[in-house]
Amino acid sequence: MNKLIIFLLPFLIFTTAGWSGIPEKKQLLSPEATLQVIDSIKGTAIVFGEGDKEIHTFIDPYCSMSQRYLSFIFKKKKVMFKKYKIYLYLYELPRKKSKEIIKTILSSEYKKIMLKQVMLDKANVDLEDNGDVDEIIEEINEAAEKIGVYKRPYILINGKVK
Amino acid sequence: LTEKELPYYNYLKFLLKYRILLLVLIFSAIIFSATFIKEGFVYNDKALWLNGSKEYSKLLKLKYPSLNVEQVVADISVDGWSTEAVDKLKRLQKELLEKEGVAGVNSLFEQKSIINNVLNDEQSMMEIVSLVDEDDETVYKAVLEEKGKFKSFVDGNKVTFYLLTSGNVDLDHIKSSYPLTKTQTTEDTHFKDVVLFSILFIILIASFSIAFKSILPSILGVVFITSTTIATVALFQLISAVQVTHISIVILSVTVSVMDFVYLYYKWHLIQGYRHGPIVLYRVITKTVIPIFWTTFVSIVGIGSLVFVDSQILYSMGMNVILSSLIGFILSFTMLPMMLSFFSQKNPQIVTKNSAIYFARKEAAYHKNGLQVFILVSVAVFIYSLYSYLTEPLTVSSHKNTNQIHIALTEEGLTQETLLELQNIQNLLKGEFNAISSFDSAYNEIRKLYLQEHPGEHFNLHNVDVDSYAFMFDLYDITRKIMANDHLTLIIYLNDISEKPKILNFLRDESIMIQDLSSLLDMAKTDSIHTLFYVIFFTLSLIVVAIMYITRMAEFSRIALVVNMIPLIWFFAAIMLFDIALSTEMLVAMIITVALSSDATFHFIFYYHNQRHKPRSSVKALESSFVYIGTPLGMGNIILASTFVTLIFIPDQTISHIGIFSAILVTLSLIVDLFVLPVLFVNRIRNNSSVQGFYHGQSIEG
């Protein structure tokens, strides 16, 4: 009986995880391949800073951890923006239902200001449904799935998740 | 010999003929030079020790950041360790950080912990949190749970903040709910100058009046000593490469001139009991010029050789001894005889004459065993101090509580290579010294982070992506604590402060750059003590050679060596035994002792040697030496010792330490000069009938 349980356990865990929709907690691509994918979506990011080192992060505007991350960056913005170029990719967490706000931010003329208002000032902004950004959102989603983005914030440095 | 052929006769005649003109010229020159003296003497010796020292120069050459580590200790006895105390201490830290010139504070609040902030499977972030961002309750519990980790910062009711400063910071006027103890306080040097000079003035006037039962020596003494000191300080400020004038320069100058004055004035005072007119001054000059010349020569060539040392403090001491000895000598044989020529003393009192003869007779009948025991004990003390010096390093740290050493790498940046260097240094130190309790470094932080991120995995620096950790350090504002001007730093915490000199030596041997000024200061002091030993050895050799030259007798040279060495040996043994930290004050005291002791030796030996050429017994020669040399020697040393004792009450550590050390050494030196030197004369010279030209007379037993 014991032997049967031991045999079945990994199978049960695997299938349970698959059914519950929890992404596998590991980076699916090698750092080099990740960087290639990232290169293809760079244009979709909201970028802060002018430093030499690139930091790529997938965030959800309503995710409190992503908001915390952004607040740390802005707390030290003088150093951070001088040393780093921070690419922020808006990638929805299903449970946060943030698709509309992502659309609103990405379609805004002042993306950076809007992002700060939503994430740092926690301001209520009018949601706008602009179909133009669906393509961008799709691009980000595809890239995130390829890489295996399983959490927010998902910080990539030199192609490796932090 | 005709009058004109007598040595110094024409010189004295010239002095007396133009005395008014010459005195006006000398006083004008001194007043003129006094106007050039820059106000305010330096009491703090930190900069003087550091400037010119090897390790500090290396640091400067690399334009490297150096840090002052100042300690502020809060006594929280009122509340004890509690959440209220945490709140008040947090406010104190904020206050300290807002002080101008404070680059950072290392305290319990700066201690970091790594947390994996997980909200759920999809929302998480690894964070580095400092205790300063935690609530009071968390900080309170953290310290209670891990007392060992916070021992450097919280020890019972004492909470220590280490301030990292880039220059002088005014630590006064800090608002705090608790009483604070600081390593640095703002000094009111003007007040101290006034108190110091007032004490010197009063003590000298009083002691000269008491010793000679006349007001004349007080007036002449103060004029002479003030003139010598003014000229020395002015000349020092004019020609010295060191721009700051340490207060010890004044004290050394006063000491040298007091002894010159006492020898000359005493001679002049005494001779007037049986001679009058210019012959008195003539005899004063002929009797004192040779020993004073040789003392000056030994001081200038011996101790003065310190000017060739790179260290600013030793250079200052050397230059100071050269100038004060030279000016003292010049004024002793120009200004002083000219001033004395205006006065005469009727019935000069020599209150100590009978006691001097009594002492001489007592000492002539000394117990041989007593001398042997004393010499044997001194040899034992010498062996002890030599052994201690070779086996245990000297205590050099003035701040015994500074249990940290800050080092920085010479290479710039946070890279795999620099981290590897840090790892190697830490492993090397940990393997070598048990006294090291912990390290604070980028390497340690990365290791902790890695193990938190990859539980159960083996940490290997080669597998680490340095950029990602550098980003985290920047994100959580830790970079400024692990780097200084883009150089990685390492803080070494010690649980046994006595091992610090060994660790510093090790770091220096491994060419590792030391960054905190407290450690640099310790190393500069260690270097200087070696130099000082050579200089003292050289000076003692000079004394031996000069005595040999004057007396042509090796026995006198041996006696000179023994009596000059004994006070230093005893003093050094006391330093080793009581673990007293090396300081400028101590150097000043040792230099004063060498100068005074050689002065006494030259006068005593010169006089005794001359007396033995006359048809006198050794006891008679000794009696006479005691009256003419022993008395002014005792007088001068007692005046100096009492002056130094009063310096203890001046509210400044430097001055009070000079006072304590010098008073002890001067007393030791006086005891040896009055009780050992004469006995050695009788013991070693008395029966030496093989030496031609000596009259040995009737023996004491006969």
What proportion of the residues of chain B is helical, as a percent range? 55-70%
Average pLDDT taken over every residue of chain A:
85
**If helices are DSSP runs of H or I spanning 4 or more residues, what is the number of helices of chain A?**
7
Low-pLDDT regions of chain B: 687-702
Q: Name the chain pair with the biggest interface and residue counts per chain.
A: A-B, 29 and 18 residues
Strand content of chain A: 5-15%
Gross morphology of chain B is elongated
Our estimate of the beta-strand percent of chain B is 5-15%
Helix content of chain A: 40-55%
Total count of strands of chain A: 5
Mean pLDDT across all residues of chain B, rounded? 81
User: How many strands, what sense, and barrel or not for the largest sheet of chain A?
Assistant: 5 strands, mixed
Give the number of DSSP strands of chain B. Answer: 12
Low-confidence stretches of chain A: 7-23
Question: Topology as H/E string of chain A?
Answer: HHEEHHEHHHEE
- Class by helix and strand content of chain B? alpha+beta
Summarize the structure in words.
The complex is a heterodimer of chains A (162) and B (702). Chain A is an alpha+beta fold and 162 residues long. In chain A, 50% of the residues lie in helices and 14% in strands. Chain A has helices spanning 2-20, 31-41, 64-75, 77-83, 99-107, 111-119, 134-147; strands spanning 46-48, 53-59, 84-90, 154-157, 160-161. In chain A, strands 1-3-2-4-5 form a 5-stranded mixed β-sheet. In chain A, strand 4 (154-157) and strand 5 form a beta hairpin. In chain A, helix 2 (31-41) runs antiparallel to helix 7 (134-147). The radius of gyration of chain A is 18 Å and the shape is globular. The model of chain A is unreliable at 7-23 (pLDDT under 50). In chain B, helix 7 (189-212) packs antiparallel against helix 8 and helix 20 packs parallel to helix 22 (584-613). By secondary structure, chain B is of the alpha+beta class. The model of chain B is unreliable at 687-702 (pLDDT under 50). Chain B is elongated, with a radius of gyration of 31 Å. The interface between A and B is medium-sized, with 29 and 18 residues.
